[in-house]
Amino acid sequence: MYLHGTSRINGQGHLEIGGCDTTALVEQYGTPLYVMDEAQIRQRAREFTEAFQASGFRFQIAYASKAFCVMAMCKLAEQEGLSLDVVSDGELFTALKAGFPVDRIHFHGNNKSPFEIEMAVDAGIGCFVVDNFTELQLLNEIAGQRNRRVKILFRVTPGVEAHTHDYISTGQTDSKFGFDIGNGQAKQAIETAINLSNIEILGIHSHIGSQIFEVEGFRMAAERVAVFAATIRTELDITLQVINLGGGFGIRYKEGDTPLQISQYVKAITEAIKNCFGQVNYPLPEIWVEPGRSMVGDAGTTLYTIGTYKDIPGVRKYVAVDGGMTDNPRPALYESVYEAMLANRANEANEEIVTIAGKACESGDMLIWDISLPKSKWGDILAVSCTGAYNYAMASNYNRIRRPAVVFVQAGKSDLVVKRESQADIVNNDLIPERLFG
Ligand SMILES: Cc1ncc(COP(=O)(O)O)c(C=O)c1O
Ligand SMILES: N[C@@H](CCCC[NH3+])C(=O)O
């Protein structure tokens, strides 16, 4: 397993993260356990900030909280001077509860409910990223009822196909998100909004997809957005101040993954904006981005306890752990590949190829197919790396399996930031109607 961030093998031959021995973390908190390397998250935030500072552009880096949205993470994002992207009242509530400055929160989503819009307007949200015509009218109406003027970006689809899994590709014309530039709907949306008295247009937003390893897609998106901005200026007499190019910066999950340095992504984006907007003689806009995975993905490691085996001679050996698709649905959803190691026997040589199965009642509940490991036994600790993004965030209670705890580790200290769900939590919202007792 590749050792990310502060991960290392210590003198006892154990995996250590943030100066904490993972076997001690398991003793203290149990398994499955999400371990987040705080220094690694902070370093990523600083890489983004420094790269933008070097570009000379005005900027906002909005952490896409969907990747991992808990109050401690919102606090950390605030400390690092980031903005925050939320997509539901739940994420907004989490951020507000954590005391995140509301004027630095951006509200996304393709089907924001009236309740969500009201909540965000009342809270004084920094901006809405408007996704469709219905939302535009609703937002104007709700803001009007409150005598408020709300800032917006328009989410546009620039017609760029990112080289990634279909389910996480969003910039193409056939997408449920945003207004298409190519078919004229993006222009029509801006034209409509100009006449809405409770809306202030800041700019446009484009997000082409996730887990992207090259810069070409971002360059193309910047180019199309610049041409579009120029057309809008000529035809509608409005100059956009903000261009948001979304997130999508890839990370290394496994051997063969080739993400770029954060500074390379940022340089490509800022240079493309500079060139493309320069070519059409446009005042340089403020640049916003929304990294999620690249902020937290490789800072996360999940620790599991190994339980049972099923060895099918000549076919395959299954090794089951005490979690699975309920804490990490990504292999089942996207065929994502993860790396792992035995955290308590980290120096031992690999001896067998096994398949790591989860404990859910589902044949597709596999975490890793065909991985080389030392011969493991009941009670060993399996560490799976790169689980910081879209793992806890996408965890479920399928089979009424309880969601794991999350700890932040740094400089030899661990802090619980999400408690393990209890059995009481599992039935907390259940009710038995009176008549069923009769
Ligand atoms: C609008 C938007 N912004 C930001 C992100 C974050 O993407 P990533 O986690 O790949 O950086 C996403 C998710 O793909 C998104 O849909
Ligand atoms: N959930 C996806 C990323 C999509 C993000 C939202 N647009 C993943 O785990 O890779």
TrEMBL record:
Record's keyword terms, sorted: Amino-acid biosynthesis, Decarboxylase, Lyase, Lysine biosynthesis, Pyridoxal phosphate
Span of domain Orn/DAP/Arg decarboxylase 2 N-terminal: 39-296
Active site: 361
Enzyme class: lyase
Protein's GO biological process: lysine biosynthetic process via diaminopimelate
Positions that bind pyridoxal 5'-phosphate: 248, 290-293, 390
Entry-linked NCBIfam families: lysA (TIGR01048)
Subunit structure: Homodimer.
Cited function: Specifically catalyzes the decarboxylation of meso-diaminopimelate (meso-DAP) to L-lysine.
Name recorded for this polypeptide: Diaminopimelate decarboxylase
Gene: lysA
